[in-house]
Specification:
Layout (H helix, E strand, L loop, with lengths): L2 H12 L5 H12 L4 H8 L3 H22 L1 H24 L4 H20 L1
Helix pairs in contact: 1-4, 2-4, 3-4, 5-6
């Protein structure tokens, strides 16, 4: 997963756990595409202060994910849901073949059980 996508997904899950200053700098940089210098000028702080806060915020977000694994679980669940949809589509193609439909139902049960286990 590319860094921008990963870091914004982490922010979606854990952003509310950040301070207002961290959220503000993160949003200006990642969501509003401000440069470090523009953020520093806008907030009347040093460029180094912006950089340090941004890096600390990124580390905090990665640390939350390492501990809680919410994004990882979200991504796994998306994969399972895609498998479910694909299996349903496959069953719909073969409604006249009960054996193939039965195989699709068995696959759906397997996927559901994996979701329950994880």
């Amino acid at each position: 997963m590319e860094k921008l996508l990963q870091i914004t997904l982490l922010y979606d899950f854990y952003g509310e756990l950040l301070t207002d200053k961290q959220k503000n700098i993160f949003e200006l940089y990642y969501q509003n595409d401000f440069s470090l210098a523009e953020i520093a000028d806008y907030l009347k702080i040093s460029r180094q202060g912006v950089y340090d806060t941004l890096k600390r915020t990124e580390n905090i977000l990665y640390d939350y994910e390492n501990k809680l694994k919410l994004v990882e679980r979200f991504e796994k669940n998306k994969t399972y849901i895609k498998e479910i949809v694909n299996t349903i589509n496959e069953a719909e193609k073969h409604l006249d073949d009960l054996n193939k439909v039965h195989i699709c139902f068995a696959e759906l049960k397997r996927i559901a059980n994996q979701l329950i286990i994880e």
